[in-house]
């Protein structure tokens, strides 16, 4: 049975993100390789992965090379660093689908790059990236940035179960 995974903010090829976010890598090459290994350790060819933005700072050929090495059917929601390139650029680089706007998953989860406004009365959860090591309080936001999850994508069930556990803990 195929799984559905989520991740964001890999910043492949972005040397300065190592310092900006205190990533535990000695070089951008080491970072890229470890993130590819972490992705492929959990995502299989038949799985789907929603990438919630800021995928690569590399040129098209280098980005295509990375995408060709990553398992799964890959869907990109454009992040702020991705938007300088057209939707077709990302499709040509190897994403299977590209969205310029947030998506709704399972009629309950808002998938976006930047966190969306969610008041406490809304029954939805916003799965997002963008803010890297930061975290919003409450049960309405789930930060899927790689820094929070050891550079490894999470399944839908892992996210759902974490959200449910945090809701039960707040009662």
What does this structure look like?
- The protein is α/β, with parallel strands linked by helices and 171 residues long.
- The protein has a single domain (4-169), classed as Metallo-dependent phosphatases (Purple Acid Phosphatase, chain A, domain 2, 4-Layer Sandwich).
- The protein contains five helices and nine strands, in the order βααβαβαββββββα.
- The strands form two sheets. Strands 4-3-2-1-9 form a five-stranded mixed β-sheet. Strands 5-6-7-8 form a four-stranded mixed β-sheet, with no helix packed on it.
- The model has no long low-confidence stretch (mean pLDDT 93).
What is the CATH homology-level superfamily?
Answer: Metallo-dependent phosphatases
Q: What is the highest CATH level, the class?
A: Alpha Beta
Strand content bin: 15-25%
| Average predicted local confidence, pLDDT | 93
The low-confidence parts are: none
Organism: Paenibacillus donghaensis
Protein name: Phosphoesterase
Give the helix/strand layout.
Blueprint: E1 4-7, H1 17-20, H2 28-42, E2 48-51, H3 60-69, E3 73-77, H4 87-93, E4 97-99, E5 103-105, E6 109-112, E7 125-128, E8 141-143, E9 154-155, H5 156-169
Parallel strand pairs: 1-2, 2-3, 3-4, 6-7, 7-8
Antiparallel strand pairs: 1-9, 5-6
Helix pairs in contact: 3-4
Summarize the structure.
This is Phosphoesterase. With 171 residues, this protein is of the alpha/beta class.
């Amino acid at each position: 049975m195929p799984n559905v995974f989520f991740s964001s903010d890999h910043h492949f090829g972005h040397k300065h993100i190592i310092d900006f976010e205190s990533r535990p890598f000695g070089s951008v090459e080491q970072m890229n390789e470890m993130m590819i290994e972490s992705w492929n350790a959990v995502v299989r060819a038949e799985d789907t992965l929603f990438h919630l933005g800021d995928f690569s700072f590399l040129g098209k050929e280098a980005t295509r090379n990375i995408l060709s090495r990553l398992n799964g059917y890959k869907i990109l929601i454009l992040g702020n660093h991705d938007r300088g390139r057209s939707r077709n650029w990302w499709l040509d680089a190897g994403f299977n689908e590209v969205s310029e706007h947030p998506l709704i998953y399972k009629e309950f989860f808002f998938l976006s790059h930047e966190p969306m406004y969610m008041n406490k009365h809304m029954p939805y959860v916003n799965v997002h990236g963008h803010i890297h090591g930061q975290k919003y309080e409450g049960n309405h936001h789930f930060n899927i940035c790689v820094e929070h999850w050891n550079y490894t994508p999470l399944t839908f069930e892992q996210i759902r179960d974490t959200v449910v556990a945090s809701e039960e803990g707040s009662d």
